[in-house]
């Protein structure tokens, strides 16, 4: 049991050394998100090995990236028979595999295709790198996280502190839009975004923005709506050519670097992500999370852990409380869809 009262059953006591050497895999590495995300990871001193997996084009993407003068070694893996090799020894797996939205589609419309893809990839993670931090970008995130969790459970290797739905793009967008409206440097703005990652389940907590900002009610409502529908703004502008890829690659890299920093012992690293949660009546919910390491009770070894502490919802304004209440039904439905999908899998 750690200091915040969570109990951990350590099934695989595998102690990583705390140093800047991480093997990171990108599954779906040839896609619109996968390629720029892999580029950003290749550019980072935190990554020593980059493992690129996709069902197509990875030899080319890997050859291209491997010529960049940074130390991470890059290997491409293509097709299901190379998936195990791609994952072996990975500490972090980032998954942007799957189809994106076209105009007129909701994220839930992607469920049929992406649920199978994510379940297959989660199954491979459970077999080949059960200790890894798993960061899911593939939509609908509100269902793909329960899917990943249920698949890991089936293999007896589920650790809720290591499965993340990447919602960072919602935070990135909220920071940018608030900064635009207030004439601030977006790099210095931080808006926590809680809930889930689809439409009204995306709940920006503008009342908790740093620096503190105030908006009249009509502007606050319009700003909240824009953050919730920002993905659709990009889908419409791309007019059939997909959804956010470059900003998502940035957000995926930001989340991965935060995780790696925390795994390397940096203190005070906080990111929001959609995770298994006791903070509301929803089984999965995004809130600010302190990322880090836990101390193993028996021998004081430091264990790289992902979530060190869930910082919870905190104080909400009346407007935000209403948004949370209104998101519950949709979130519960999407979570159930994910759980049912795995329960009915052959
Ligand atoms: N979490 C977020 O904030 C967020 C933001 C934007 C997009 N997305 C989601 O990310 C996903 C990817 O978007 P994209 O624009 O990169 O799509 P894309 O079509 O450009 O790329 C997807 C890649 O996945 C690969 N792929 C398909 N099946 C696979 C499998 N079984 N194993 C491995 N790779 C497989 C494809 O070959 C392709 O290279 C979509 O589901 C999209 O909705 C999430």
UniProtKB/TrEMBL annotation:
Any GO CC annotation of this UniProt entry: mitochondrion
Residues in Lactate/malate dehydrogenase C-terminal domain copies: 167-341
InterPro entries xrefs: Lactate/malate_DH_C, Lactate/malate_DH_N, Lactate_DH/Glyco_Ohase_4_C, Malate_DH_AS, Malate_DH_type1, NAD(P)-bd_dom_sf
Residues annotated as signal peptide: none
Any Gene Ontology biological process: tricarboxylic acid cycle
GO MF annotation, one: L-malate dehydrogenase (NAD+) activity
Coiled coil stretches, renumbered: none
Gene3D superfamilies for this protein: Lactate dehydrogenase/glycoside hydrolase, family 4, C-terminal, NAD(P)-binding Rossmann-like Domain
Top-level taxon of the source organism: Eukaryota
Domain (Lactate/malate dehydrogenase N-terminal): residue spans on this chain: 23-165
EC numbers, comma separated: 1.1.1.37
Catalytic activity of the protein: (S)-malate + NAD(+) = oxaloacetate + NADH + H(+)
Family of the protein in this entry: Belongs to the LDH/MDH superfamily. MDH type 1 family.
Assembly and binders: Homodimer.
Protein name according to UniProt: Malate dehydrogenase
Organism (species): Sinocyclocheilus grahami (Dianchi golden-line fish)
Gene that specifies this protein: mdh2
